[in-house]
Structures are given as structure tokens and as C-alpha cells.
Amino acid sequence: MAESTTEVLVGGAVLAVAVGFVVYAGQMTGFSGRTAAQEFTASFRSIEGVSVGTDVRMAGVKVGAVTALDLNPETFRADARFTVADRIALPDDSAVIVSSEGLLGGNFVEILPGGSPFNLEPGAEIEDTQGAVSLVSLLLKFVTGEQSAE
Question: Cβ atoms within 10 A of the Cβ of 131, count?
């Protein structure tokens, strides 16, 4: 009788630890669907290195994710839709840029909040954007000595 009680207790402990790991992994990957989010759009000249699911960050903290990417056939720009947590109010003069985590790191979408006292409504388009900078084209400009026209 004591052996079966011990086996049940150990089995319950193992099961509890496994459930704890699943919950922790879901929270760390942003998989938990409990956070309410608002969606915004932005149009970029180049959104190279960004895909659906890419992090949206403010001050280095993940606040959302890219939900859709489409090519606008009229403007030939990349239209992006992304979410931001409901608890964050974005000023209407905020900017969105494609940033890099480093020389070998991936890209992410960064929101630079403005100073306006008025906030964007969910679904609004953020017009101040800066697309991805191609490392290859920068290196070619450096190697060939090409200077940009100002």
C-alpha cells in the first residue's frame, strides 16, 4: 500500500512540473492568448528581414508582433500590420522603424513614441516609417567609395 501511495505522489509531482513547464514556455514565447492587443498599420519602402511573428518592441521590450505583410500594388511599398498591447497608448506622432539586433542578429520592428498629447486610435496607420537598411548595399557603398547625394 505504501509503494502505490509513493508512486501516485511522485507521478502527481512529475505531472505538476510538466504542466508548469508548458505554462512557462507559453508565456515566454508569447503564445498565451490572454493579452488584449490593438492593431496598427504602417507602410515601408523595404521591410527586409521582417516576417509574420516578428517582435514589435518599444525601448527594447516586446509589446506586440507583426501579424501580416503585403505588397501594395499601387505604391509598391510593403504594408505591415502589427499588434501592440492594449495597455500602451501610442502618441499620434510616433515612428516605426525596422531595427537590427546586431551585425549577425535578426530584425525587429521598433516603435519610437512621439511627444504628442493625442493618441492613435486602434487600426490607425503610422505614417512616419523607416525601412530596413541593407548591410550589403552599405558595404558596397563603402568599398566603391560612392557618396550619397544630399
Answer: 18
Q: Is the pLDDT of residue 139 over 70?
A: yes
Please indicate, yes or no, whether residues 73 and 87 belong to a single structural domain of this protein: yes
Same domain, 63 and 114: yes
Tell me if 83 is assigned to some domain: yes
The pLDDT of residue 149: 54
CA-CA distance, 86 to 93, in Å (whole number)? Answer: 18
Bridge partners, 55 (sequence order): 65
- Per-residue pLDDT reduced to its tens digit, 98-111: 988 876 778 899 99
Q: What is the domain extent for residue 124?
A: 37-143
- What residues contact residue 140 under an 8 Å CB cut-off, 6+ apart? 146
Beta bridge partners of 106: none
Task: Strands of 1-150 (E only): list them.
Answer: 37-44, 55-58, 61-71, 78-85, 95-100, 107-112, 125-126, 128-130
Return d(Cα 93, Cα 78) in angstroms, integer: 20
Helix then strand count (H, E) for the chain reads 2, 8
